[in-house]
């Protein structure tokens, strides 16, 4: 089976085997990454008769790979995977490597031990120490982390920047800003994320300035990070980036605007949502609609897909309506109920010639997914006319599905036909 299939099936045994035995470092690295992403599944109860849970076996395998794998990238990926399993998993690795038991120490004492690990000879221990310090979040270790922003190993600098972002200490912004202009791109990405997570005015200014840099890669990095801010201030910068000369920057800006909706604090959510819609309505339609459709087609992140579905119905018009409708019709059958609802609601805002007939054919097709047909009935209740009223009257009489019948009556009641049941698209 492919790694994708192993990930989908949460096959820990085979993934561990790939991590331990594959001769291809790319496969070992990817296996480590997948094992990290499956952390929640590894917490499930072990199968009957197996005294150890998948979590125990995965952590053991990752600890071994973090120390012994011949590839720098695999060792780094294994450490990052351990991070996803929590502080205990990281401390097991650090304890193995340093010979010091951290289990019973108070948090502040752990922080001191880890801070000493930042200067260890082994770069993997420095990486793990930085990652652990970011998890503990003690302010008194910020200066020790800042000192390691000049570590000779870029993998360490990357995790130091990530730790400073987790701690969200404003005092680290000047040092992060300096490295942002000097380091290699892989480190700059984490520095940009750290500045966004810290979110102070000077951190925001740094990202805004770089979003206008001559270097295309730097512009993309800054635009990517701005999506983490969840603030009105970032919206205008990202909207301007939608007209960037570089396609990668334009697409990243659209992804960031969608992500920003997810990051917005509750007390500013409505304001940010309205600001984004206003900016996107003023932007070139092709620069907006196509990336939103791409998110629906390709993204695996639920929050991104929800927001893309919501936005698409509010910014698509004229030449992009047909393409937006195609994407939303397919998204109405999404496994995530909220994404499905947003797609149906957005589709109801994009009525045009042919949509009513298309949805009626979908509803009447017994081979299509029932969830998709339910959402189509909801949209028909919003946009349908005499044709819908006549055909749905016949449909509710012959369908064997109680759910479709109920939603058919709901649509008919909204169209002034038979029935009195009302409700949302679910």
Summarize this structure as a short list of keywords or feature phrases.
0% strand, globular, oxidoreductase activity, Leucine-rich Repeat Variant, single chain, mainly alpha, PBS_lyase_HEAT, 426 residues
Give the beta-strand count: 0
Indicate the low-confidence ranges by residue numbers: 46-51, 419-423
Q: Approximately how much beta-strand content do the residues carry?
A: under 5%
CATH architecture label of the domain at 356-416: Alpha Horseshoe
**Morphology:** globular
Overall CATH class of the domain at 356-416: Mainly Alpha
Structural class: mainly alpha
Q: Residue-averaged pLDDT, rounded?
A: 89
Say what the CATH topology of the domain at 356-416 is.
Answer: Leucine-rich Repeat Variant
Rg over alpha carbons: 26 Å
The N- to C-terminal Cα distance equals 36 Å
What's the oligomerization state? Answer: single chain
Provide the succession of SSEs: HHHHHHHHHHHHHHHHHHHHHHHHHH
């Amino acid at each position: 089976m492919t790694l994708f299939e192993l990930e989908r099936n949460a096959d820990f045994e085979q993934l561990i085997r790939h991590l331990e035995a594959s001769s291809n470092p790319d496969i070992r690295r990817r296996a480590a990454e997948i094992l990290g992403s499956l952390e929640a599944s590894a917490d499930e109860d072990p199968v009957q008769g197996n005294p150890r849970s998948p979590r125990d076996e995965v952590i053991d395998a990752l600890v071994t790979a973090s120390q012994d794998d011949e590839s720098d990238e695999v060792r780094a990926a294994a450490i990052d995977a351990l991070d996803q399993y929590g502080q205990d998993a990281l401390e097991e690795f650090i304890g193995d490597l340093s010979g010091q038991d951290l289990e019973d120490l108070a948090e502040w004492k752990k922080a001191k031990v880890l801070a000493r690990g930042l200067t260890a000879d082994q770069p993997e221990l420095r990486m793990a120490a930085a990652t652990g310090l970011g998890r503990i979040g003690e302010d008194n270790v910020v200066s020790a982390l800042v000192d390691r922003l000049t570590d000779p190993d870029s993998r360490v600098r990357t995790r130091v920047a990530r730790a400073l972002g987790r701690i969200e200490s404003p005092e680290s912004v000047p040092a992060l800003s300096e490295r942002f202009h000097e380091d290699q791109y892989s480190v700059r990405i984490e520095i940009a994320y750290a500045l966004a997570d810290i979110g102070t005015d000077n951190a925001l200014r740094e990202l805004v300035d770089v979003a206008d840099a001559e270097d295309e890669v730097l512009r993309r990095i800054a635009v990517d990070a701005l999506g983490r801010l969840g603030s009105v201030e970032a919206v205008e910068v990202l909207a301007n980036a939608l007209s960037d000369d570089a396609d990668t920057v334009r697409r990243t800006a659209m992804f960031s605007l969608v992500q920003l909706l997810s990051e917005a604090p509750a007390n500013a959510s409505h304001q940010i949502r309205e600001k984004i819609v206003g900016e996107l309505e003023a932007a070139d339609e092709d620069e907006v609609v196509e990336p939103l459709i791409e998110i629906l087609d390709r993204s695996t992140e639920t929050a991104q897909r929800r927001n893309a579905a919501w936005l698409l119905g509010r910014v698509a018009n004229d030449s992009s309506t047909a393409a937006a409708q195609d994407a939303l019709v397919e998204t109405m059958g999404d496994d995530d109920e909220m994404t499905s609802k947003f797609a149906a609601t957005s589709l109801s805002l994009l009525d045009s010639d042919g949509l009513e007939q298309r949805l009626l054919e979908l509803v009447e097709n017994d081979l299509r997914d029932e969830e998709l047909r339910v959402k189509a009935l909801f949209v028909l209740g919003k946009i349908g006319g005499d044709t819908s009223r006549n055909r749905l009257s016949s449909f509710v009489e012959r369908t064997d599905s109680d759910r479709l019948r109920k939603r058919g009556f709901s649509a008919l009641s909204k169209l002034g036909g038979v029935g009195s049941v009302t409700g949302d698209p679910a």
